[in-house]
Amino acid sequence: MATLNPPAVRQQIADGKTDPIYLLQGEDEVEKSALAMEFEQIVEEGLRAFNVERIHVGELTTGDRIVQGVGDLVAAVRTLPMMVPRRIVGVFQAPALRGPKRDSGAATEAMGDLELLFATPEPQTTLVLVSTALDKRTRMFKALQKHATIVACGVIEDLSAAEQWIRSRMR
Asked: Cα(132)–Cα(20) distance, rounded to whole angstroms?
């Protein structure tokens, strides 16, 4: 879809016009965490318990766990928001979603379900995947590249970006 830098994404959040899927990737863990938390601020505080969900997928290493984890993720994204216009689902340690090391029919089918979720996202949900840099050769990255907004965290492109990075850390 598109590649944005963190300030552009923050502007989208401030405008209330977020895309359905974001991949926050890079080596700057502080930036990724801060940006993921800013997505949660879209939902007013009293309603976050119903409309903000965090999923940690680092333990999805076997076929059975992947099937269960992907099923939980799809269900969380497909759940409609309650009393607010948008639901936020944050997925942490997203590289674990690349699939099992050993071939498993059920896990392969679950990964197909995940790709279908990326291709047909829920319009009232923003899915935020937080990851280190993904291998660009994988099916997962190719699907995300096609359907998600990719945000590079920790890349300082010019002097103004360096100044902004320092200011945000000082705050």
From this structure: 20
> What DSSP designation does 28 have?
-
Cα 151 from Cα 28, distance rounded (Å): 12
DSSP letters of 61-126?
A: -SHHHHHHHHHHHHHHHHSPPSSSS-EEEEEESGGGGG--SS--HHHHHHHHHHHHHHHS--TTEE
The residue among 130, 128, 156, 163 whose CA lies nearest residue 41 is 128
pLDDT tens per residue across span 119-151:
999 999 999 999 988 888 888 889 999 999 999
127, 36 in Cβ contact below 8 A? Answer: no
3-state SS, residue 20: coil
Q: What's the pTM value of the predicted model, to 2 decimals? A: 0.86
pLDDT per residue as tens digits for the range 19-53: 999 999 988 888 899 999 999 999 999 999 999 99
CA distances from 171 to 47, 121, 147, 157, 166 (A): 27, 35, 33, 21, 9
